[in-house]
Design brief:
Mean pLDDT of chain B: 90
Radius of gyration of chain B: 22 Å
Order of helices and strands of chain A: HEHEHEHE
Mean pLDDT of chain A: 85
Number of strands of chain B: 31
Largest interface: A-B, 25 and 34 residues
Strand order of the largest sheet of chain B: 1-2-30-29-28-27
Structural class of chain B: mainly beta
Strand order of the largest sheet of chain A: 1-4-2-3
Shape of chain B: globular
Strand content of chain A: 5-15%
Largest sheet of chain A: 4 strands, mixed
Distance between the termini of chain B: 29 Å
Oligomer: heterodimer
Number of helices of chain A: 4
Structural class of chain A: alpha+beta
């Protein structure tokens, strides 16, 4: 076996050296010893362009933005937008004027004291106060609907002044 | 208890006996009675022959109905059939002015026939008798009809025991509109919603209920047929839609809408057409209520500052102020005879039920709780149901218009509110 192998090697070598000009018949296939192949890293694609899609971040979706504030608070027995609510009204008015295809519900709320229906009408007055402030700033009526939840959906469930103050409120809800 | 009965009520008679009758721990609505009427009529109510055939004890329901009314002093009388001979003198000697006897028979098809006689011990004569047939599951209806007949024959006023109430429950942020018999039994669910439901109002024929639902993130007025489940949006204008009240003929509803920028009273056909405005003020006009003759609409308005009750013609026009005491009077309800106005007034921080005699302008406070709402007359005008609060739990209460008899209905769990008493059953 050993002689034959050596002979085969010699013949193969001779064939290669002769630049394959002469086909050589080999009685047996030569055993191939495979050397470990080191794969070359693929070349970096240099001719393909990766596209970037530019997205405009809607400020309405920015949790840190001014539009994240959507509640306007009211004093007891009052239906006038307080100074601390004017920026909320202004910011959403600006946004709605830039986005004529967006529209909102303004949901007025009251504290729990008194009748359900009369409170619904009082909550409506709060929603209307915000609506009027927005239309004064130039927002078209078609983008705003003022409605009332009265005392039916309290945000604060308590029965004290802190809860009542939290519930004397109008919320801006985008449709 | 039988499987037919989904709940039982218990009854506590305070003041009359100074004790309590046993109640059921399974009760979903618990009724507590206090006070007694003026000039109670002593009446012996026998257990009816063969009444154990029925899933509900007819004589017990009759006794409970009459007891709740406060108009009777009930005496037990053993079991007496309507066919038995009654010893008038013996009952007269025991102090009974009248004796009720009866029997129950089940027919082959499962229906029950309840026969009853009302006997006058003084005249020694039969005052009335009825044979009432009911479907197998509703023998309690025959008991309410008999109680109505007894009440009519002995007081001269039509009974309102065979009537129904609607109310809203709130439990675990689920809102349900429910319908029950006037005694709180036979509770059925009409609507379930994750959003609030307020202001249910019965159609005059008792087949439909109008209400305000917030399921569209705003108040919208619906009419729901209780039998077919069909729902019609009656008012869904821009803004808020609320406070439905049926015209006495059932063809129209008065509603409160904010479509013109502030809450005003409108009238709309029951199918949602023909909407037109009837009140005209610069402030709030809401809670319209038709008078029984259809001529007037009572409503609450803040046109003079705080809310007060006004009356205008059913087609609008000038409004006259009706309430003058106190600076917060809301939720007007007018009795069927047009003589008495019930409403909620805030005085000294308490919201309480008042009635006003419109002829004499005499005002009477009927409740002694502090957070009362949503009054509603029984169709015979003798009682007012309203929402009240016990601790932090909302419950219902009933008071006689003379203020002498009071009942409180408490749900086993959750809040129960926005009650409205239905019409006489047709």
């Amino acid at each position: 076996m050993r002689k034959i192998s050596s002979l085969a090697f010699a013949i193969t070598t001779a064939a290669i050296l002769s630049a394959c000009s002469t086909p050589v018949k080999v009685a047996e296939p030569a055993p191939v010893v495979e050397a470990p192949v080191v794969q070359a890293p693929p070349a970096a694609p240099t001719r393909t362009v990766a596209p970037v899609v530019a997205t405009v971040v809607d400020p309405l979706d920015d949790p840190q933005g001014v539009l994240a504030k959507r509640s306007v608070y009211f004093d007891f027995n009052s239906y006038v937008v307080r100074d601390d609510g004017k920026a909320v009204v202004q910011n959403h008015s600006d946004y709605l004027q830039k986005k004529p295809n967006r529209s909102i519900l303004i949901q007025g709320n009251t504290d729990e004291r008194g009748g359900a229906e009369y409170n619904l009408a009082l909550g409506q007055k709060r929603a209307e106060a915000v609506r009027k402030a927005m239309t004064t700033l130039g927002v078209p009526e078609s983008q705003i609907e003022a409605v009332s939840l009265g005392k039916e959906k309290p945000k604060a469930e308590g029965h004290d002044e802190a809860a009542w103050a939290e519930n004397r409120r109008a919320d801006i809800v985008y449709k | 208890m039988t499987t037919m009965k989904t709940l039982t009520s218990s009854l506590i008679l305070a003041g009359l006996l100074g004790g309590a009758l046993a109640g059921s721990a399974q009760a979903q609505i618990h009724i507590e009675i206090s006070g007694v009427g003026n000039n109670q009529i002593p009446i012996a109510i026998a257990s009816f022959a063969d009444e154990n055939l029925a899933p509900q004890q007819v004589s017990a329901i009759i006794r409970a109905d009459l007891e709740r009314s406060g108009a009777f002093q009930i005496m037990d009388a053993g079991t007496i059939s309507d066919t038995a001979d009654v010893d008038y003198n013996a009952w007269k000697a025991r102090g009974a002015a009248a004796v009720v006897v009866g029997s129950v028979q089940q027919l082959a098809n499962g229906s029950f026939v309840v026969r009853y006689k009302l006997l006058d011990t003084v005249k020694q004569a039969k005052i009335s008798q009825l044979d009432v047939m009911t479907a197998p599951q509703y023998p309690r209806v025959s008991a309410h009809k008999i109680a109505d007949d007894i009440y009519l024959k002995l007081t001269g006023v039509r009974g309102a025991f065979d009537t129904r109430i609607a109310y809203v429950t709130e439990e675990n942020r689920k809102f349900k509109l429910k319908v029950a018999d006037a005694d709180g039994e036979n509770i059925q669910e009409a609507l379930s919603s994750p959003e609030p439901i307020i202001s249910p109002s019965w159609s005059p024929d008792g087949t439909k209920v109008a209400y305000v639902s917030f399921e569209q993130r705003k108040p919208v007025v619906y009419v729901q047929n209780l039998i077919t489940r069909a729902r019609v949006v009656v008012a869904n204008e821009k803004g808020s839609n609320s406070a439905p009240s049926w015209s006495p003929d059932g063809s129209k509803l008065a509603v409160a809408l904010s479509k013109d920028g502030h809450t005003q009273v409108y009238v709309v056909n029951a199918d949602g057409g023909g909407l037109h405005r009837v009140s005209n003020s610069a402030g709030i006009d809401t809670e319209p209520q038709w008078s029984a003759d259809g001529q007037s609409i009572y409503f609450s308005s803040d046109r003079s500052g705080g809310p007060q009750i006004y009356r205008m013609g059913a087609n609008g026009g000038d409004a006259q102020r009706v309430t003058f005491s106190g600076n917060y009077n809301i939720s007007p309800r007018i009795s069927s005879d047009g003589k008495t106005l019930a409403y909620i007034s805030q005085r000294d921080g308490k919201f309480q039920l008042y009635v006003l005699d419109l002829a004499s302008s005499q005002e009477t406070r009927l409740s002694d709780t502090t957070n009362d709402q949503s009054p509603s007359f029984s169709p015979n005008g003798k009682y007012i149901m309203y929402a009240t609060q016990a601790g932090q739990r909302k419950s219902l209460a009933v008071v006689s218009v003379d203020g002498r008899v009071k009942q409180r209905l408490t749900a086993q769990a959750g809040n129960i509110k926005e009650p409205t008493w239905g019409p006489f059953m047709q």
